[in-house]
Every structure is written in structure tokens, then in C-alpha cells.
Fold this protein.
Amino acid sequence: MSTVKAVIFDFDGTISTLRAGWEEVMIPFMQESIAGGRALTEAEEARLRAEVESYVDQSTGIQTVFQMQWLAETVRRYGWNNEVMDQWQYKAEYNRLLMEKVERRLQLLESGELERENFLIKGSEQLLDRLRQADIALYVASGTDHPDVEREAKALGVYRYFAGIHGAPLRQAECPKEKIISDLLGSGATAAEQMAVIGDGKVEITLAKASGAAAYGLASDELRREGINPVKEARLLAAGADWIAGDFLNLEEWLGRLGLIDL
């Protein structure tokens, strides 16, 4: 490909692992919200778990409020729980539960008890550094709330690399990934063939493919921070990723894919 002028990164699972394990919070939260106080049979529990796990897997990367909108609709559809909240209430409660885990990690990071490298996908900072040296405009687009993405990028020491960080706007159901792609193309400063999107979710890959940008999947193993996660790899392949890696350790391969060097 020709040398890119702009690269859009997803954040969680692509650069940062501060929120690794979010599925372990969301899935039981959704199951409990749907079941309410009902004592489920073994068959009911298995059916519910399968539906929730399938939805969480295929919705990875979208704005959290849309996941919570699905939850509200599903609580109504099952009819097991008489207390149905709206998507914003569900989102607030889910965020509260998730941030208990994330906040502990941030405190260890900000206190210096853990190094920021413990929460960065391996090779990510080296790639960001090389791209900035090449005067390529870098952006973050995330379904996580905007203030949280900014705080976490600063805590990890990568905030300085980005021309713009775009998280989910508070109390607005707007997809920041779709918006940043549309804004960059609409401005005329960047053509589709000069743009690359890198992420571990099908949302950003699908949007990149639809826009004509290069779509690179990051099938990260968030515990090891390197290597391929086969579940993510299958998801990214199904979304049509142009190429898939598990980390950024092969710097030359990434620079070649982005048109900075000849492979």
C-alpha cells in the first residue's frame, strides 16, 4: 500500500490492557439482570448463558450504551425480571462494577507499584513512536467513555502520541469510530487509501472495510500481551480484516504494511 497519512487505533485490547477481563464483568451482570430473582432450571440457565456470551462476543468494540440497550430489550423479552432499567442505568451499574477492577490497576500504575509496560500490548509504544517520527497523524477511537480513555492513555504514557482521542461522548449514543473515519474522509485531508484502522473488534474492521481504508486486526492475548488469541482471530477474519497480528513486536512487518518501508 502507499504510505498512510493517518492511523486510527482502537484502545482497549489494541493498545491498553487496563480493561482486560471486561467480559468477565459484563456477562454475569447481564445474566443476573435478565434472570432477576428467578430460580433458573439448568436448561434455562444454559440457554441464557449461550445467548449472552454470543452477544458479548459479536458486539465487542461497539459503544457500551448500545450493549446496554440490547440488555434492556432482552430483560423485557424474557420477562423474568420485573425491574427493567433503561440503557443508561444499566451502563452506570456496569461501569461501576468494571471500574472497581480498573481503578485498582490504575492506582497500582499511578503509585508506581506496577510499570505501565505491564498494561501495554507489546511493541505498541515502539510502533507509535516510529509513526509519530514519520509525521503520521495518529488517533484513538474507542467505545469506552471519553474521560476514561483520556485518563487511561495518560496513565499509560501514550496520550502524547495522538492528534486526537475520541471516546464515547457522555450520555450520547454516538459511535466515535464511525465519526472519526467520516470526519477524516470528509475533511479531504486524508483519502481512504491513505488511512489504516487497527483494532481487536469487528466494529472498527467493518467500518474500515466499508470506507475503503486498510483494516488490520489485532487478535491480542490480553493476559500475555503478545501472541494470537484464536477467538479474536476468528472474529476478525469473519469481519474481513486485511491482515491480522497478535501484537506489535514485528515492527518491520507493521511498518511495511503501513507503507513506511518495503517488505
